[in-house]
């Protein structure tokens, strides 16, 4: 398949997909994109705006995975804002819903949109909940129990172990956040398997 992996980070979701597909990853941060390229040298890595890239290139792919920014939707940020002064409320970033609507309306292939469980009632009902994430898709994804992670309290060594990566040789200002943003590789593999089952 031709796969587009948007807001790719360091590629937690992609880790177990293997090298049988042609994968294009889009990541805005050059330092994070460099780590992705080191981990997945066969992938085509684009440094740029994933939201715009989707609009410009969606017709070129069979399967699109997109993980638009989640921080403004997160129940964690909302709870922090309620409990502690000095954390300003923000509008939720609506790129999430823009991409769900765009893909469901215009894209002929298969897609998954991933985000955290939000602090509000979702505006569009997700297809499935896996681990701590919601997924919107145009194919069936079987619910499955995954081991619960202690992501909120986990520190960098714990997160590196969880995701099976060693970032000690990389300098990132937000290394813990980069690791926290990863979708666990087992979840990414489960969804790819469900997509393959759909195609049979």
Describe the structure.
The structure is a single chain. By secondary structure, this protein is of the alpha/beta class. It contains seven helices and seven strands; from the N terminus they run E-E-H-E-H-E-H-H-E-E-E-H-H-H. It has helices at residues 30-39, 50-57, 75-83, 95-106, 156-163, 175-180, 185-199; strands at residues 2-6, 22-27, 44-47, 63-66, 110-116, 128-130, 133-137. Strands 3-2-1-4-5-7-6 form a seven-stranded mixed beta sheet, sandwiched between helices. A hairpin with a 2-residue loop joins strand 6 and strand 7. The longest helix is centred in the last third of the chain and has 15 residues, at 185-199. The relative contact order is 0.17.
Using brief descriptors, characterize the structure shown.
alpha/beta; 7 helices; 7 strands; 7-stranded mixed β-sheet; globular; 200 residues
Distance separating the two termini: 14 Å
Main sheet characteristics:
7 strands, mixed
SSE string: EEHEHEHHEEEHHH
Total count of helical runs of at least 4 residues: 7
Mean pLDDT: 90
User: How many E strands?
Assistant: 7
Helix content: 25-40%
Shape: globular
Could you name the ranges where pLDDT drops below 50 across 5 or more consecutive residues? Answer: none
Approximate strand percentage? 15-25%
* Rg (CA only): 16 Å
Side-by-side strand order of the widest sheet: 3-2-1-4-5-7-6
- Briefly note the structural class of the backbone: alpha/beta
């Amino acid at each position: 398949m031709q796969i587009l992996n948007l807001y790719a980070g360091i590629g937690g979701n992609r880790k177990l997909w293997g090298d049988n597909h042609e994968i294009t990853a889009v990541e805005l941060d050059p330092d994070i994109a460099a780590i992705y390229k080191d981990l997945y040298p066969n992938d085509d890595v684009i440094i740029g705006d994933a939201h715009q890239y989707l609009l410009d290139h969606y017709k070129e792919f069979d399967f699109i995975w997109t993980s638009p920014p989640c921080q403004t939707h997160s129940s964690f940020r909302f709870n922090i804002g309620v409990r502690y002064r000095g954390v300003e409320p923000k509008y939720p970033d609506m790129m999430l819903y823009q991409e769900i609507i765009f893909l469901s309306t215009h894209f002929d292939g298969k897609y998954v949109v991933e985000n955290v469980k939000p602090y509000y009632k979702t505006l569009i009902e997700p297809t499935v909940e896996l681990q701590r994430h919601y997924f919107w898709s145009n194919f069936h994804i079987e619910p499955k129990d995954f081991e619960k992670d202690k992501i909120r309290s986990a520190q960098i060594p714990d997160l590196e172990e969880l995701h099976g990566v060693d970032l000690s040789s990389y300098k990132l200002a937000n290394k813990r956040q980069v690791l926290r943003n990863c979708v666990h590789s087992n979840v990414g593999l489960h969804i790819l398997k469900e997509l393959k089952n759909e195609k049979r």
